[in-house]
Amino acid sequence: MNDTHFPPQDPNQPKPGQLGQPSPGQAPKPPKQPWATGDKKKRWPWVVGGSFAAAILVLGIAANQHENTPTASETAPASRTSAAAATLSAQQTEAKRLEQEEIKRQHEEERLRRAAEAEAERQRQAEVLAAKMDRGTYEQIGDRDFALLAKDPDAHKGRKLVIYGVVTQFDSATGKTTFRAETGANPGDYYDYDVNSMVGVLSTTAANVVEDDMVTLYVEVVGSISYDTQIGGNTTVPKFFANIVDVTGSKE
């Protein structure tokens, strides 16, 4: 007979093998978590409270974002300021462009003006030169007028005259662009000319002129000139500039 004794069983405790209890030889189940099953009723206030707090937090964040977001009335002045600044910048750019174009226009006008003045001066010089070479622009005068000119050459500056004479000196002492001549208002023999004169000339114009030549001179009156003579004196004589020199003969 088996004498094994079992401890007394509590009639309220489930027996092995009953629902929820391990069978003989089966490992016992782990203990229940504090929030399992019947504790659900105890945690619902926390869930509701947490949800309510989360909702309040979300509403607070949304309200804060709404407060920080500028309204249309607040952004309108900034937009107008930005638009005004953009308009001003565009106006300044356009004004600068117009200013630069005006400067360029003025420079071009100045260039054209100077070019026109230079061309006008060139034409004037050409006309003056043409007139100098035009024999018809020189005045024929008589002996009395020529005597008055010889008396006061400076009073007749600029006159264009036809005079006649004989070359009395044209050498290294006078140079290639000046010679002395005895002159008069009318053609004649060399002894008919008694007004000592200095005549300036271009070297090309006088290339074939030598001392003792009889000449017809188309001159402009320069005025008077003084120079020292070979005998140690000083004399003042009329000075002419000959634009045209015609050699008509020789003294000898």
Structure commentary:
The protein is of the alpha/beta class. Among the domains are: 75-132; 139-250, Beta Barrel (OB fold (Dihydrolipoamide Acetyltransferase, E2P)), CATH 2.40.50. The protein contains three helices and six strands; from the N terminus they run H-H-E-H-E-E-E-E-E. Strands 2-3-4-6-5 form a five-stranded mixed barrel. The model has no long low-confidence stretch (mean pLDDT 82).
Please indicate the percent range of residues in DSSP E strands (runs of 2 or more): 15-25%
Mean pLDDT: 82
Kindly identify the CATH topology of the domain at 139-250. OB fold (Dihydrolipoamide Acetyltransferase, E2P)
Series of H and E elements = HHEHEEEEE
- Global structural class: alpha/beta
DSSP strand count: 6
Topology diagram in text:
Elements: H1 40-68, H2 72-132, E1 139-140, H3 143-151, E2 160-169, E3 178-184, E4 195-201, E5 213-228, E6 234-250
Parallel strand pairs: 1-2, 4-6
Antiparallel strand pairs: 2-3, 2-5, 3-4, 5-6
Summarize the structure.
By secondary structure, the chain is α/β, with parallel strands linked by helices. It contains 3 helices and 6 strands.
